[in-house]
């Protein structure tokens, strides 16, 4: 099976990291989003058969490589994190891999995403696999702690071996329109991350308007974000296609103006293979297939892999596996 659904305009190797730019308040002021136009457009996603049926299995395999396999629960334990890491090392059952004939492809998730407390556990459990650990730092999920505390948390996560840091912004800064404060804080977070990549979680369900989401996206990108991410998974409204359209149009605009390609991570509530295909279709239509690579796109999801595995098996055999055959953690 061929996984050549991406062209190689930018490979991870050639990717230029966002160096950050000065805060351009004039640009921020010009940003406007029209919610009803976005809703109309979002309603057409996937309707044009962007992914042909024959290619769906390949797209679902590709989707696995784009997942930040996540556990962010109050009752997480080292044991659960270890089981998740073991699933990350072997995301698909051997018999499915053999039936698909993809033994030679490196199908591994983009990262394993955990609370800071479990970074060391995950790093040890993933040793040698090449799968990076992402930590949610900066007082996840609300982001409300003194900035010094949040910076220390980032530094601690990096020290423990996290290669990616998912920070949360303070929603109040957006609601007050205090773009300078948001810019300064994200810039400081970026500096604390050092070589670790920074994903900025906007908490879009709490930002009131699509225009606010668009402006916050821009300010985070100007401050040096490597990825912009929708949600913590804990807000009442998490990732959806309308918000995604807003954010990826800002990513497109930013790329046109600066030449820098920023990653996109929808997160929260993305649980089915059908959802994954819709998001991938959206990216393909709005940004192009080369954005569907782990350094430019991730799903933040705790249960998506389970459904993808079920759908792959169904596509191969016409049957769904019993739940006990696909334990997650
Ligand atoms: O960033 C990831 C989210 O917390 C995962 O949300 P989920 O459990 O709804 O998939």
TrEMBL record:
Taxonomic superkingdom: Bacteria
Annotated metabolic or biological route of this protein: Carbohydrate degradation; 2-deoxy-D-ribose 1-phosphate degradation; D-glyceraldehyde 3-phosphate and acetaldehyde from 2-deoxy-alpha-D-ribose 1-phosphate: step 2/2
Q: Which Pfam families match?
A: DeoC
Report the SMART domains cross-referenced here: DeoC (SM01133)
State if Lyase is listed as a keyword: yes
Keywords per UniProt: Lyase, Schiff base
Which Gene3D superfamilies does this UniProt record tie to the protein? Aldolase class I (3.20.20.70)
Q: Name one GO biological process term.
A: deoxyribonucleotide catabolic process
Kindly state one GO CC term assigned in the UniProt record. Answer: cytoplasm
Any one GO MF annotation of this record: deoxyribose-phosphate aldolase activity
Q: Does the keyword Lyase apply?
A: yes
Q: Which PANTHER family match?
A: DEOXYRIBOSE-PHOSPHATE ALDOLASE
Q: What is this protein called?
A: Deoxyribose-phosphate aldolase
Which organism was this protein described from?
Devosia oryzisoli
Its gene name is: deoC
